[in-house]
Write a structure and sequence with these properties.
Layout (H helix, E strand, L loop, with lengths): L3 H17 L4 H13 L9 E5 L3 E4 L11 E5 L2 E5 L2 E3 L2 E4 L5 E4 L4 E4 L12 E4 L2 E4 L3 E3 L2 E3 L6 E9 L3 E15 L4 E19 L2 E4 L6 E4 L4 E4 L2 E4 L14 E4 L2 H8 L4 E4 L5 E3 L1
Parallel strand pairs: 1-3, 2-4, 3-6, 4-7, 5-8, 7-9, 8-10, 9-12, 10-13, 11-13, 12-14, 13-14, 14-15, 15-16, 15-17, 15-18, 16-19, 17-20, 19-21, 20-22
Helix pairs in contact: 1-2
Length: 273
């Protein structure tokens, strides 16, 4: 148990942090109430904290994102201009919340981002995303070239236009019918136990960049369209910039089993290995 003085200091520290983040008083009240309910144990389990004003996490340790057991709900923009860790989940209150990750920074979430009925509108940025659980979003646009983003669970893209670079490991990919996903550069790799389901449009390759989609070991289902073409519509590209699909023969058959389409570009544009 915390002493009264220790608890007071803890509350004052969180008030100071919340003040720097310019969050509404209701956010601070919820955080403090959570600590009091916990009876000196810190933050109460399953605490819900709503980020109800545009928030920039930068230039400071984002302590409010580091609370165990907290669920952060946002219908506005959360900007990460620092390395930040959320030890539970981030969801959206009404499918409109957005997350922007600044260049050279990383957002680490140990559990899920988004959920059915609480889909993040967009996750964007030149930084990296590291998620231990599932990620559910209308659109995911990661343009970072430093390091790699990873998602331990399933990435579900619902109905937006997405583009990724260097998304190296996925627990699964569910690209829904109204979604368009482009692997613009680097690798998108699914681990051996993953499920790959494409009902929308999936493009591997873009003009002037080498891109690879590695499905080996994954369970594959394709009712949409997959295009592997580094020429990106026929534009000229250097000979070493091409698109590659790594897949087994059994998976190749599965991609066609449900009337899905697989389009592969010419000798310079795309390859299937």
């Amino acid at each position: 148990m915390l002493t009264r003085n220790a608890l007071g200091n803890l509350i004052n520290r969180y008030k100071a942090v919340l003040g720097k983040c310019r969050l509404l008083n209701v956010f601070g009240s919820l955080a403090v109430a959570g600590m009091l309910v916990a009876g000196g144990a810190g933050i109460a389990a399953a605490t819900e904290i709503e980020i109800s004003a545009d928030t920039n996490v930068g230039g400071m340790t984002p302590s409010y994102l580091e609370n165990d057991g907290a669920q952060f709900k946002a219908d506005v923009k959360l900007t990460i201009d620092n390395d930040a860790t959320a030890k539970h989940v981030i969801t959206a209150t009404d499918n409109t919340g957005t997350i922007d990750i600044g260049s050279a920074y990383t957002l680490t979430v140990t559990d899920n981002i988004g959920a059915s009925g609480a889909v993040i509108k967009a996750i964007t940025g030149a930084g990296n995303l590291v998620a231990g659980g599932d990620v559910t979003a209308k659109a995911l646009t990661l343009s970072g070239t430093t390091g790699a983003s990873t998602i331990g669970g399933t990435l579900t893209l619902t109905d937006g236009t997405s583009s990724v670079k260097n998304l190296t490991t996925l627990g699964g990919l569910n690209n829904k019918a109204a979604s368009t996903l482009t692997v613009a550069a680097g690798e998108l790799v699914l681990n051996g136990s993953a499920s790959f389901a494409n009902a929308g449009t999936l493009k591997v390759g873009s003009s002037g960049s080498r891109a690879t989609l590695d499905l080996r070991g994954a369970t594959v289902t394709n009712t949409g369209t997959i295009t592997v073409d580094g020429k990106s519509g026929g534009s000229a590209i250097p000979s070493d910039n091409y698109a590659t699909l790594n897949i087994t023969s059994l998976q190749l058959a599965a991609l066609h089993a449900e009337d899905g389409k697989l389009n592969v570009g010419g000798s310079e544009g795309g390859f299937v290995h």
